[in-house]
Backbone:
């Protein structure tokens, strides 16, 4: 019984966390124009370019052209992901 309550509580907390992170993102998704240099640089269809933090490049390198992303505080996030990758706008 205690284990079930712990699992339910963890699910609720994780849901709130994902919702809170999504709230800090822009409402309109943008398309990826290109992912360059092994996930180091991402260019979006609005012309913006982003440099991805080293720890998140492993995730960014598998993002594909024409996929949607949201611009968030401190990075970019695919709409169905739980957290954004850390990235800084350079253009």
Residues:
């Amino acid at each position: 019984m205690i284990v079930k309550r712990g699992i339910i509580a963890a699910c609720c907390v994780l849901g709130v966390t994902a919702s809170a992170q999504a709230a800090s993102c822009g409402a309109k998704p943008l398309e990826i124009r290109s992912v360059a240099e092994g996930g180091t640089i991402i260019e979006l269809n609005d012309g913006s370019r982003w440099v991805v933090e080293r720890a998140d490049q492993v995730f960014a390198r598998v993002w594909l052209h024409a996929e949607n992303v949201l611009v968030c505080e401190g990075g970019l996030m695919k709409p169905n992901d739980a957290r954004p990758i850390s990235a800084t706008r350079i253009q």
Q: What stands out?
A: The radius of gyration is 15 Å. Confidence is low (pLDDT under 50) at residues 6-20. The chain is about 30% helix and 30% strand.
